[in-house]
Design goal:
The chain is an alpha+beta fold. The chain is built from 10 helices and 10 strands. The chain has helices at residues 5-14, 25-39, 80-84, 88-96, 122-130, 132-149, 188-206, 245-248, 252-261, 264-282; strands spanning 48-52, 58-62, 70-76, 100-101, 109-114, 158-163, 166-172, 177-184, 213-218, 236-243. It has a 5-stranded antiparallel sheet with strand order 1-2-3-5-4. A hairpin with a 7-residue loop joins β4 (100-101) and β5 (109-114). It is globular and about 60 Å long.
Length: 287
């Protein structure tokens, strides 16, 4: 069997993958444009924008009660109830207390921008609004990273059903935090490319003493989930991250870890799709 040159090229693409943004750019750009328009002397205008994000998350930007000088930003997460069990409400209050309002019907969290009283730090607030999904997700990680930092183990494993058929599990030990994602692959090709990705992560760890341990299991859940109702099947995969204290220590490193790990499932499937598209574009056309 001869390995085609286009397949070699694809593997090169895999090891040079881009990272997905962890804040919603449309939310950030829309708010920035509306606020700058007012600061430059323009009149507020109507806003009614609904934005779909990964994992079934929805953002909605609107004028509450039709008031053009107010912009409400709301976020809906189907799995917010799971996050509430791990301190999501408290984290959101901490991060957004200064401009939070009662949630818009059908949404979990809402924040309000008053265009008649724009604060000096409005750009920081706009960025925070674009991070609503990320910060809701962060609650479960902060909780279990805190357990590890305090040397607490034996706490019940967190279970977050972040997609209809996919689940995230988080568990803390005295010396590590294990994060496991279950994911569904649509076809056999996705499984093959996914395994290549996982192998590249393993290889990357050999060249870095600070990289987390990454494990991949196909069809069956990893040992940590044996005896649970974790899904099994030919199209089921589990990706496990073993995070040691250097990755979860309070400060910039912890924030970076949360940024990256909460987007991992989407990062994986995005690049599987990109790789398949690239492979098809390089395949010789049939006569």
């Amino acid at each position: 069997f001869a390995v085609c040159s286009w397949f070699i090229d694809c593997l090169y693409i895999i090891v040079n993958m881009i990272l997905l943004e962890f804040k919603n750019r449309i939310v950030q750009q829309t708010l920035t444009e509306k606020i700058r328009n007012v600061l430059e002397g323009g009149k507020p205008d109507n806003v009614d924008v609904t934005v779909a994000d990964f994992d079934g998350v929805l953002f909605h930007m609107s004028n509450p009660d039709g008031k053009k000088d107010k912009i409400m930003v709301s976020v809906s997460l189907k799995f917010y109830k799971d996050l509430q069990e791990h301190g999501a409400d408290e984290l959101v209050q901490r991060e957004y207390g200064g401009f939070m309002v009662d949630p818009e019907p059908g949404y979990n969290v809402s924040v309000l921008f008053d265009l008649e009283s724009i604060p000096d730090d409005w750009e920081k607030r706009v960025e925070k609004a674009a991070l609503l999904k990320r910060n809701c997700f962060a609650s479960v990680f902060e909780k279990y990273f805190g357990y590890q930092e305090q040397g607490i183990e034996g706490k019940q494993r967190a279970v977050v059903h972040y997609r209809d058929d996919e689940t995230m599990y988080v568990e803390a030990k005295k010396d590590r935090v294990t994060v496991i994602f279950s994911t569904m692959f649509k076809d056999d090709d996705d499984i093959v490319i996914g395994k290549v990705f996982m192998q590249e992560f393993k290889e990357g760890r050999r060249g870095s003493t600070t990289a987390p341990q990454v494990l991949f299991s196909h069809r069956e859940p990893p040992m940590e989930l044996q005896g649970t109702d974790a899904r099994v099947g030919d199209n089921v995969g589990y990706i496990s991250f073993v995070l040691f204290p250097r990755a979860t220590v309070v400060g910039a490193q912890r924030e970076k870890t949360i940024d990256l790990i909460h987007t991992f499932r989407n990062y994986l499937h995005y690049h599987i799709k990109c790789s398949k598209a690239y492979l098809h574009s390089r395949m010789p056309s049939s006569a």
